[in-house]
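Hey, resending since the last one bounced:
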Amino acid sequence: MDRNFFSGIVPPIAVPVDENENLNEKKLREHVDFVIDGGVSGILAFGSNGEFYMQEEDEQEEILSVIMDQVKGRVPVYMGIGAIRTKKCIRLAHMGMKHGVKGISILQPMFLKPSADELYTHFATIADSLDGTPMILYNNPGRTGYGIPQDVVERLAHEKENVIGMKDSSGDMTQTEEFIRRNRDVDFRVMCGKDTLIFSGLAVGAVGAVCCTANFVPELVCSIYDKFRAGDVKGALEAQFVLNPIRLQMDKSSFPVATKDMANLVGRGLGAPYLPSKPSTESQLEGLRNVLEKYGYLK
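The structure tokens again:
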């Protein structure tokens, strides 16, 4: 199975909505073009910063339809799924397949604390339902309360041909290294899910990163990957050191509002987050503004 497409910098694309929380189609189309023009290698629909947990299925289908139409095959589009029930994950995955997504990303179920066997069965059942469509595991212990065990990942990588890789948002480089080391014999591809660890991930064999900051400084984020791949290790590290304070400043706001706030500050006009989330406070916005201005990204 071809898996070379799964690489580079992929933003979990932010979804612009109006004051009534309806999709702002014009802004979404503009934002798709903005990140592609900024050099990204793909687009993840319904990532954590895409606020998938706020959207109904019919809203997701509308959003995905617009993204696919605007991308027009320029880069791969992945569909993120974070449902708890296996059957719902399959239903959403098939909706994505109907619209032509390149791959399906599955987060471990929230709220539950499944055993290793239950977790394997969840992922394996979904993988088997996809008729060969590539599937990507999404490990995010910070949001789900537990990580995907190494043994479960290794078993899936070696037993399910269409489980081609994963996004690891653990922030634990030992975990990331082990996901890579234990599965490199089957070309299992790992992307980092922490914007501050793009360089570190590439250095241990990651194939790229899924980065919320690529929603507003895509050229900077992509330069880390591009310079590293071109052999300019020093330049890649310097770009990482510019990105880090920008990303770290976002943690002063509640999750995930800073992504839209930052994008709005650089002129993207994505609107507010879905309630109950609210835009950053004025003092938080000042901090976001200051760090963007310091590094030359404030319009």
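The chain is about 45% helix and 10% strand.

Sorry for the duplicate.
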